[in-house]
Amino acid sequence: MNTGESRDEVTPLVAAAHELKAPLALMRQLALRLESSNLSEAERQRLLQQTILTSERALRLTSDLTRSTRLDPALFTLEPINPEQLCRDVASELTPLFEAYGRRVEVTTRKHPLLLVANRDLLRRILLGFGDNALHYSGGDSVVRLQINALKRAGLIRIGVRDYGPALSSDMWRTLQKKLRTSPQSVHARPESSGLGLYIASQFAEVMNGRIGAVRHKDGATFYVELQASSQMSLL
Amino acid sequence: MSTVLLIEDDAWLAEIEAQVLREAGYTVEVAPHGFSAMDKLDTYRPEVIILDVLLTGSTAFSFLNELRSHGDIGTIPIILCTNIAEQFKAHHLREYGVRRIVDKVTMHPDDLAVAVRSVLSDDEFEKGGVS
Q1: A40 neighbourhood in chain B, CB within 8 Å
Q2: Ramachandran category for residue A184: left, alpha or beta (phi over 0 → left; psi -120 to 50 → alpha)
Q3: Beta strands across the sheet bearing B27-31
Q4: Would you call A188 an interface residue with chain B, using a CB distance cutoff of 8 Å?
Q5: What is the dihedral angle through the alpha carbons of B14, B15, B16, B18, rounded to the nearest 10 degrees?
Q6: CB within 8 A of A213, min separation 6: which ones?
Q7: pTM here?
Q8: Predicted ipTM?
């Protein structure tokens, strides 16, 4: 049987079409359900809210794609940023979506504030993408955590998005590692994902002289971005 | 009343599909991924499984392979419900128990209930020894 386990690379255009198919198909089903005459008003409102949130997720991807086609470093100002504050902003932005799924997103607070060098918009987009991904992978009513760590020896700061879901098999983990380094893959290379989101995130990180990565846990995964710590940190 | 195991990792889509199937008179159990589906199979012994292809955690095909390796539950008929229906032909997947393929992109919610009914009546037909 051809199970479609091909590792062929696909163009970003094909990957984008695939990634957008799922939210569009969901929005269509939500709309068709709304046509049903035997819905309560509360049910109708909930379906409307789900339609809006799903369209916003899809629009985030299209916006990231547009941005990723114009990644001249000269266009992106790098500045010292307080990652904890940015994580709070991202968590606030994601909260309506998480609440609608019955999940929570939290920021792990730090005793000592840190500063990193980044472009605020690009870093925000990376973290929103990781958050979306974590929402999909986290199970039940689990929490997704945004965590900030200083890698002092390397002069880096790592922002991780930790989810709690089914463990990835070794095969899938190897495929994921490949995706972190390469362009989008065939849609079968990893279930439900062409890796386009990771590809875009890695491009955004590169423009900020950073990189993305992932850590596998027995009960989920952490996707992270590492960026240069700001030298202003030493003044704190 | 027949029981349907719905394996779908999108919680909102699963909710809509489950509601439609319940309205059609089926008992529905939902599993978000293959691991929990294997657990639920033992408990609920469904007559039909509706399976999304692009799942979290493991692929639908590793689930199908595992399912077929169990003598007692390996013959449960499968309906694939997927966004990439155009990539599959039902007759290529028949040996894995796939009886219908429903295209999520174009389906009407009622199409799933129709597919379940049709698979169950095929089963009745075959059990009656007519085919």
Answers
A1: none
A2: beta
A3: B27-31, B3-7, B48-51, B78-82, B98-103
A4: yes
A5: 80
A6: A180, A223, A224, A226
A7: 0.80
A8: 0.86
For residue A63, which amino acid is it? S
Half-sphere exposure at residue A226, Cβ-oriented, CA atoms within 13 angstroms: 12
The contacts of residue B69 (CB under 8 Å, 6+ apart) are none
pLDDT per residue rounded down to tens, chain B (131 residues): 899 999 998 899 999 999 999 999 999 999 988 888 988 998 899 999 999 987 766 678 888 888 888 877 888 999 999 888 888 887 888 888 899 999 999 999 899 999 999 999 887 666 665 43
CATH class of A75-235: alpha beta
CATH of B3-127, one of 2.60.40.10, 3.40.50.2300, 2.40.10.340, 1.10.1270.20: 3.40.50.2300
- Residue A117 CA, distance from chain mean position: 20
Task: Give the DSSP H/E element, type plus range, for residue B121.
Answer: helix B110-127
Closest Cα to residue B31, out of B18, B19, B21, B22? Answer: B18
Q: Decide the pairing of beta strands B3-7 and B27-31.
A: parallel
Mutation target vs A (from B6, B7, B8, B10; most A CBs, 10 A cutoff): B10
A191 in contact with B, Cβ within 8 Å:
yes
For chain B, the residue count is 131
| DSSP sequence for A17-69 | HHHHHHHHHHHHHHHHHHT-TT--HHHHHHHHHHHHHHHHHHHHHHHHHHHHT
Q: Among residues 65-124 of chain B, which lie with CB inside 8 Å of chain A?
A: 83-84, 87, 92-93, 95-96, 104-105, 108-109
- Show the beta-strand stretches assigned E in A139-219: 143-151, 156-163, 211-217
Domain spans in chain A, listed from the N-terminal domain onward:
75-235
Between CA A221 and CA A90 the distance in angstroms is 19
B116-129 b/e (C-beta count within 10 Å ≥ 16 → b)? beebbeebeeeeee
